[in-house]
């Protein structure tokens, strides 16, 4: 079930507040998301995976062994494993990435000069302002 516009706005405000409160934590959480890599990265990972699969299958045919173990197959398996990790984790956001509000995650905003308030207090204040406007 998709979120309503009001819920999406609230979620975006929570996200921007998280970036404002603790940008270091927010960027570390953003980097660790699984399964959210861009499509181009997934295509690259699929191609690398196929190359690893070919190496895995061709290894015994070539017959290059060390101690009776096909080295080419081992390399193929490691390439496949790396491709799977690449597909899952994708790329990390570059420095100077922007949050949903359009502010750079490392820069200071006009709000930074305001006295620090608790996150819950600010959210409650915004919630009350919305209902006063309607």
From TrEMBL:
The keyword Membrane applies. InterPro entries: DUF3040 (IPR021401). Residues 94-134 are annotated as: Disordered. Residues 118-134 have a biased composition (Basic and acidic residues). Pfam families: DUF3040. The chain crosses the membrane at residues 43-62, 68-89. Keywords: Membrane, Transmembrane, Transmembrane helix. The keyword Iron does not apply. This is DUF3040 domain-containing protein. It comes from Gordonia desulfuricans.
């Amino acid at each position: 079930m998709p979120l309503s516009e009001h819920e999406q706005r609230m979620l975006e405000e929570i996200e921007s507040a998280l970036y404002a409160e603790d940008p270091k934590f927010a960027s570390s959480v953003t980097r660790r998301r699984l399964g959210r890599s861009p499509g181009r990265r997934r295509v690259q990972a699929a191609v690398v995976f196929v190359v690893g699969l070919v190496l895995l299958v061709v290894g015994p045919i070539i017959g290059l062994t060390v101690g009776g173990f096909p080295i080419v197959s081992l390399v193929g398996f490691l390439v496949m494993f790396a491709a799977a990790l690449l597909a899952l984790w994708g790329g990390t956001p570059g420095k100077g990435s922007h949050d949903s509000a359009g502010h750079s995650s490392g820069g200071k905003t006009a709000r930074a000069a305001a006295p620090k308030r608790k996150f819950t207090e600010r959210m409650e204040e915004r919630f009350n302002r919305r209902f006063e406007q309607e």
